[in-house]
Each structure stands twice: as C-alpha cells, then as structure tokens.
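Complex 461.
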Amino acid sequence: SRGALWGARFAEGPSPELVALSRSTHFDWALAAYDIAGSRAHALALAEAGYLAPDELERMLEGLEVVRGGVEAGTIRPLESDEDVHFALERELIAVVGPELGGRLRAGRSRNDQIATLVRLYLLDHAAAISHLVVRLIDAIAAQAEAHRDAPMPGRTHLQHAQPVLLAHHLLAHAWPLVRDLERLRDWRARAARSPYGAGALAGGALGLDPRLVARELGLGEPTENSIDATSSRDVVAEFAFIAAQLGVDLSRFAEDIILWATREVGFVRLHDGYSTGSSIMPQKKNPDIAELARGKSGRLVGNLAGLLTTLKGLPLAYNRDLQEDKEPVFDSVVTLEVLLPAFTGMVETLVFDTERMASLAPEGFSLATDVADWLVRRRVPFREAHEISGALVRFCEEHGLQLHEPTDEQYAAVSPHLTGEVREALTVAGSLASRSGVGGTAPDRVAEQLAELTRRVREF
Ligand code: ARG
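Predicted structure with arginine bound:
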C-alpha cells in the first residue's frame, strides 16, 4: 500500500521524485504542537459524539501526550517517507496506541481543515509575540523622545531643509506607524481566530461532531461559516503577510534615517558598539548593519507577500495542493521579524544623538522662511504676497551671504515696506517651534501631549 493516509486505491507506490517534491515536513514540522492540540480537541469531539468510549478517549489522550513529549524532546522526528506533519504524527500515534485505536482519530476530519486551522493557530501565537516585540520598540522610541524633549533638528522634505522640528517629534513620527501595525494585528486577530476544523475536505462534516467544542479547546472563536471557504481561502494568511511587510517597510523607513544620520556628512547620531559592525579591511569602520539589514529584510517581507498573493490568485475552489505554498513565505516573515525586531530595538535604545550639531543646523538653509511669511500674515498681509516677500528676502540673503535675521532695517525695508526689524523676533528656532502649536504640531507642549497619548495607546497592547 502507498503509505498510511491514502494508499489503498493505488497499485504502485509513489515515485521517489514525487516523494521528494511532495514532502513538506522540513517546514510544516513547525506546526507539530498545533497538530497535536487539534488532535486532542478532535478526540474530545469524537468522544462526545459517541465515536470513542471513555476508556478509548483516555488512551487516545495519553497517546497524544506521549507523542507531544517526543516532539518536544526531539526524539520524534519526521521520516523521509512522511509526506507531511499530519502523516508523521498519525504514524507516531499509531506506534503508541496501536492501529485499532489510532486509526479512529481521522474520522470526520481532513488534512484540509486541519492545515487551515493549524496555520491560524501558529500565526495567532506568533502575532502575539511580534506585537510584544513591537511594543518594546515603541517604548524604546518613546524613551529617546522623552530624553530629547527640547532638542531641535532640521526638518526636511525632499531631503532639503524645510522647517525646524523637535527631534522628539521626528522620532515619534516613526512610532505612530508601529502603533497602527499593532492595531492591524489586533484587527486581524478577530478574523484569524475562527476555526475551520470540522469543515472536512471541503463539504463539511457528516458525523455530527461539534465544531464549537473543537474551536473552544483550541482557544479559537466561532467555527468558520462555509466549509469550502474554510478549506480553500488563505486571505487570513495573506493579510498577516501584509502586516509583516508593512512592519518591515516601517522599520526600513526608520532605518534609512538612521543610516543617513550616522554618515560623516550628517553626523547626527552615533551607534553603540554593540549594535554596529566593523570592516575586515578598514580598521576605522563602524557600520549601521542592523539598519541596513532592516532595510534589506523589508524587501524579503514584501516578496513573501507578493509570492503568496501570486500563488492564490488563480486558484479554483476548493482545496488545491498549491495552498501548501502558503507556509514557507509566511513562516519566513515570522522568523524574520522575530530576529529583526529585538536587534532594531537595541540599536534604537542605544543611539547617541549629537544634539548640538542638530540644533546648529536647524535654522540653516533658510528654514525659517515660512516663519517670515507667517509673521507677515499675522500682520494681515495676504499669504500670496507674504510668500513673495519672504522669497525675495531669501534671495537677497543668499546673494549677500546673510542669514534671514542678519539684514539691517534698511535692507529689510528695501525688500518690502512690510518687513521691519521686529521680524527678527520671529526668526529663532525656539520661536518657530513654539509657533507650530496646531494639533499634532512640533511645538514642545504639543509634543509632550503626543508622547503622553502614545504611551497611553501602547498600553492597550
Ligand atoms: N500539506 C498540505 C498543505 O500544507 C495539507 C495536506 C492536504 N493535502 C492534500 N493532498 N489534500 O496544504
């Protein structure tokens, strides 16, 4: 016969090439503990429906515990001949409880509803772990923001000096996307925590087993609504892969800032020795490898999502073996984030900022020109005109090698009669920062409120 799960209708055994192609144990072994938990719940449902006598149930549960112990200890491993984790664990269970009892467990379930359930269980557990790691990173960003509450820096658009901002404000701009990623994971959980177990191969169960009992045992919510959908859809997996990719992109954007800040030319930040690397040839080198790996791995996370969606897009209902290809990309996304996030957090926690340099560069590049225009608007000059006056002042200063506050009163008046020496009061970084007191702005009071709000929001997770 062709192996334990489906051999009887075949006259010939499987070719070695098929076995090599078909085997998934090298990655789906990560689901072994969940497979056993599913079997335990399923045994309870079988017993409740009268398919296992109480003593049979007891022996079955004991047998499953033996298998669980063997998997945990590493003494139970998949064989070359095992097609997948379900196959391997049934073989092991039968070795413990015998074929008569062991052969009863498969009644009323299929690997199709099993795998759909187990992937959810795996992702739910790891989503919780990843959420925790993201919270730690947000805490690290918040601590850096707290430590630099009053430090100004050049705010840039198009990488050009734009307007001064607080370093804390800039740092918190990297925290909020991560808060939304936490919210995404929480929202995703509500959709993921449904139980396909009981959907069977595609058409639903025929033995009167209680899917709610199984769902409850597995810590899931309601059973899925449609057995075909339950076994053939992987949008829940793809949505997780999207959140992982978005997290990667959010880390990558922060990483790019850190890489630029650590350059000799910008010189805003120094990396801790423990969170940077050297060169095998250039003795002086100190490289931001964690940030670069974050940037690089974000490509991999996006690729995992793209690959998965591509696998799904042309599939007819219901289960198709293509669906086995969902696991490697999404497992890779999980492992990638679980190794990346702690390193990234350590790097952020230990960043040392050159706040003097950042402060001295904050007003450079005529970054207070908008403040000149706003000062004019407060004196009832129409903004269109104020913009032109400020632009003319920038041109004048650039030609004469002056900063915006340096012309004489006469020179101001020559640019525009609206400009008086009083404009100099508006031309300080501190004044500019304090004036940006609109909702979500960079004024120190607003940033303090923002930090408090961030801290409050993160406590939800
Ligand atoms: N290993 C399969 C998967 O990962 C589950 C088994 C279903 N196989 C099948 N031939 N119906 O999707």
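The chain has a mean pLDDT of 96.
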